[in-house]
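We store sequence, tokenised fold; for instance:
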Amino acid sequence: MTQVALGEDGEGLGPNEEFTTHDDVDTIGDLFSEHYVGSILHGGSSGPTQDGTEFVSGLNDLQEYNVENTDHGVPFIWGGDALHGNCFLDGCTSFPQRLNMGATRDLERVEAAAMHTGESVAAMGGHWNFGPTADLLRDMRWGRFFEGHSEDAMLLGEMARVRARGFECHDQVAATVKHFSGYGTPNIGNDRAHVRTSLRDLRTRQFPPQERALEEAKTVMVNSGAVNGKPAHASEWLLTTVLREHYEFDGVILTDWDDFDRKISNHEYVPDTEDGWRRAVKGGLDAGIDMCMCGAETPPTRFIETTIELVEDGEIDEQRIDESVRRILELKRDVGLLEEPYADETAIEGLVGGAQDVSEQLAKESLVLLENDDGTLPLEGSEEVLLTGPGVDNGTENRFLMQHGGWTLGWQGVEEGEPTEDGPRPRQSTIAGELSDRLGNRFTHVPTSFEADPYGTVQDFENGRFDLTDEQSDAIIDAAGTADAAVVVLGEGPHNEGFGDRDRMRLPEAQQELVALLADELDDEVPLVGVILAGSPRGTDETFQHLDSILFAGQPGSDTGVAVADVLFGEYNPSGKLPFTWESNVGFTPLFYDDYPPRQSVGAEDGMVQYEFGHGRSYTDWEYSAVSLSTNTVESPSSKPTVTAEVTVENTGDIDGEHIVEVYNTKSYGSVLQPHRRLVGFERVQVDAGDSVTVTVELDLSTLEVVPGDVPGTQPKVVEAGEYELSVGDRTMTLTIGQTEGISESEAIPIPHADSTENSRTARNLLALFQ
């Protein structure tokens, strides 16, 4: 066992380390020359500089020091969180957040955004991106809800798959599927909490989207939480039995930030002693971890020294370490580092702020029209318009506004400290700026108070500080008297992880007061339009009842202003569909559309759901006809895992538009409960007013797989023989499956048993009772 081999396992340097000259490099160079650290991280979308050319120069300096001052000369690999664009750099394109991407159902443009991000990261000198997120959404209280793409496993999997492929398309950047597995369903929505789930749920809902993304990604990041009482970083079953053996993944598995230490500080899995730390490291290496992401609580030297001691004491086999070294070196080879460790310092200049056409179109497609009473929208464009609400003013000291969200020039979407007026910004258009440009002197803007929470604070679970002052109220009352229409921006400030966890769905009190004031002061015939900027479902009927139209904008990024203005004035017909279920209040959380029946009191008519998964209105009307399947009978689903549906879509209104055709399985019966509904295929289509088109939708029959058998859920997944009702809107078709067969797996994932032969036999006998 050599130090070089062990050192290649080190992942170090927190996000605050600066390197712009060799003087800076010398202060951290001993991590390479003395300890053989093989990777560096700039987490949280925070780097030593926001200038692209300086970043490349500094990274090249550090790489040169590493190559020339180590015995092995192996380049380090840089990793970072470029999660909705390369948001490390001033002037970057901030693509819509992942929740917005899920609303578009536009795989082609989502992949194009990832391609630009990957190209930009590579030009910056980076070769590793810690995305895509492939965590299934279940609880809106979770502070990382905005990072998920959907609560539907198939939609999430397809989004994650094309994003991983986009990041890696130039063969210079490795994508990371995260967080394996179950991370998106933490107990009561608390980030990094334990997950209560079942083997059946893991196999049918949690694993499948990550399996799809694994087809394209070179690395995997592990769930920071625990699954059914076992920290994921200590689970040999998750990381070796499932990930390595069942899914045959041979890429790099890395921890999340400080997660060996979290076994002590967060999970209390091992004691806060030297022996406890040693057990935490050993358990992770035994489980299958290749690389430790060392953060503030874990100096790289501590992890490296502990690993060496474990090998020297015979507690970890040297061959086990060699396996990880091989994977890490192969990763560096595959992204081109061994051939060319340095980046061209001029390449980044033409990429920062690029792909505007992709970003703008995605932003428009991601907007979801929740309500539009009496055709309030679109506005004519000749009205006197009042805009009010927080976080949309270019002049605000919150330089990131509410339109970007977390992982934007900072982990929390704000700088580390008090926001400043003249700090770096993404390329951006704002709602206030766009309305002002288009309306001129017919536009009145009365901003209300908003300050983003400084780094590392939680302010009353509101994700920002909101206020409505007497002066602002008086100005709104004056403007309301002459307004022909009013637009009020609502929502939440940027946030991330545990600092974003919340215990409420309703809007902040100051925003509720603002809406009530407008409802009182505006004439009855003056429409009140709500625009919600948030990374989760924020708002309930106590506020929504006052609004004539509601546009859920999410966090659309750089081109928010253009996208929202185009929808408000009818230059773009909204087409987005919710990728999650919007509960009517937080008491019904978690509630998801594809749960087993009965879903308590099923359906929105019983008051549990504000807006269903897939909800989204349009300025025109759509009708379906001539619905058919390429075949109505599939005898062998393993031999024919897909069929196609054809449907004629007619735009019966007088406005051109895009429409998302979704095919659901809405009724089926088998040996176990079937989901209330499940998405089996979708397709976007453009249809001019008065025209109709025939759309072909590919249906993935693996989405119909269940785990048969009794409670333990240990049998292989299968599509069971029988009839399946498929629905497109109010049209239905029947698909008949002839034989019960598996598609995605030929044998079940092995389940863990006790160590001893006798205990294993007892466990098998008990499980046999449930088969």
In short: The first strand starts at residue 10 and ends at 12. The first helix runs from residue 3 to 7.
